[in-house]
Design a protein that fits this description.
By secondary structure, this protein is α/β, with parallel strands linked by helices. It contains 8 helices and 11 strands. Keywords: Secreted, Signal.
Length: 303
Amino acid sequence: MLLKLILVLSAFVALSVCQSPELGGSGSLNQYFAYTRAVQNGQLGVQFNMTIESIQETTLNINLTTTIIVHGHQGSAKSSLNPTVKDALLTNEDANAIIVDWSQFSSQSYENAVKAVPSVGTYLGAMIENLVAANVTTLDQVHLVGFDLGAHIVGYAGRTLGGEVARITGLDPSGKSWGPNTPRISKEDAKYVEIIHTDTFGIFPNGIGDPIGHADFYPNGGASQPGCFLYRPCCHKRSWELFAASLAYTHLQGNQCSSMLQMNLNNCRGFLHPMGTNELVKLGSGIYRLNTKSKYPFLLSWL
């Protein structure tokens, strides 16, 4: 009887472990899709895994910037963020684009998705190391772009690589469960870290309001985006819509602010700094505000 009880308990523990998203192996389920201008609109891209041999079978080119895009909670490789940003990038620049799909965990509850973030990001960092080993890119050519929880994933990836990637862009990084004393995305994760805040204030915001990068942009004050009528998901996703517009246009520039108070009062008159783009080296730092209109390409508004 005792032996039977031990066997039952062992099976239960094994089942619980296999189902736990807290395991370090969560990121082993990441999927990667490579695009260049040769494989672009309307196609899924070339799927590859972390092996050097698999990477070398893609059309990735060491002479091009490598931009890696990571979706957020409830996203996938096919969700609107990915085709929109990827197509905007490749239409306007000859570049390598890699979409990371971690939907095995992002499709679960927010709490489970949060638990998977460290492993997903660490595995992404290891994959980038193999990109370098396969001679298809260098860390100085890598731009990591993450939305929502994806912003913290690219933070983990950058940390795994010693903060040596050229650039990280966090698109309205998730705020829930990512307070000041957590391993959230930060300016230590890459040589240049830019944050675009679009849903950060008020009741139950999705994003982080604190400036956490080298340069932090607050379009329209970082909340209540034009045309969204206080609809939270609309304000949240405006971050990647603005980023996509910045890849095609150069008008999205913010004025530097001397403080968050000045930003909130819409009284910033400092140096202009371009928001977004795919530039690997950007020298601006501090807090920036810009005001936009409600529809693509989000022309600047001075009202």
